[in-house]
Design a protein that fits this description.
Length: about 350
Amino acid sequence: MPGSNRAHVRAQHPDVPNFDWRSLLKVVSTGPSTTTCNRMKSYQLPIISSFKTLFTLLFAVTIGIAAQGADKKIVVGFSQIGAESGWRTANTESIKSEAAKRGIELKFADAQQKQENQIKALRSFVAQGVDVIAFSPVVETGWESVLREIKRAGIPVVLSDRAVAVTDKSLYVTFIGSDFVEEGRRAAEWLAKASGGKAAIAELVGTPGSAPAIDRKKGFEEVLRKYPDMKIIKSQSGDFTRAKGKEVMETFLKSPEAKQINALFAHNDDMALGAIQAMEEAGVKPGKDILIVSIDGVRGAFEAMAAGKLNCTVECNPLIGPQLFDAVDAILAKKTLLKRTAVQEGVYEQSQAAAELPNRKY
Ligand code: AHR
């Protein structure tokens, strides 16, 4: 305060002790010097000492909060679909191990293939106040209302592996996953080449309403339109599981069209592996009597290819834990993310199986 103002205030309030703020700050930060102590008048001491206490407290609280912030673990809630396939098990492992590696606290919930369980888990993550919510939606639709609740709570959402069908794209920050339509196209292109463009196809569809089931079918049929002699003659869901894939293939092999079937398109390897079992039990040679193409690229598929029972697998990479937590870090650092991050994948045939097997990580 300039000297003239200070004199004016002193004149108006003669009862208020005359503070020297620079001395006071020095006292708070270094403790009172001998000269400062000597200069203190008896009426100033209680006030100075309460200001000192207040400043010290504020200082301690600020430091405490900062230290707590630095130590605070990032908490991520992840709702997984279930454990329906080898792919899913590898995906879960990739997410859990990456969280542990980065010291992130992961609240993991297994929905056992049920959307209602996923919605419950998402709401419980909101109640627990996690920093980020990630999930792999079992089906595409029916998420709008819970996603709006999460948005109102101010928690960012990352979609992992599967997308949702929502009109308001601001309900999630980013989607990390494979291009399922392209996977379907790749499977059909391979089959067109291997069958010379002539095939009576049985199709094992994934979980009804799920993004991979919808998109893989779409991509596969898109390519089929170029080949008039390639037709899907049987199609049913095997729910992405080996047991269901086997069961449905058994019914295909007992149907009136059984004799015509010379190709199988399975939306994932697990269903193809179940179907192989059904074929063997029915005396049909998998990979020879019936050409088989499936999707995922799990170790079991490579083993079946090396044994000549499966003809082709289109890769769908489940090891997306590192990309998922890179996205979490970027969100918390307030960086802008792409709305969609695709995963790089290949196509493998029987001739490559033996050489590729030792490299398979899932
Ligand atoms: O969403 C990816 C798909 O889900 C995989 O192809 C399948 O195996 C899994 O269950």
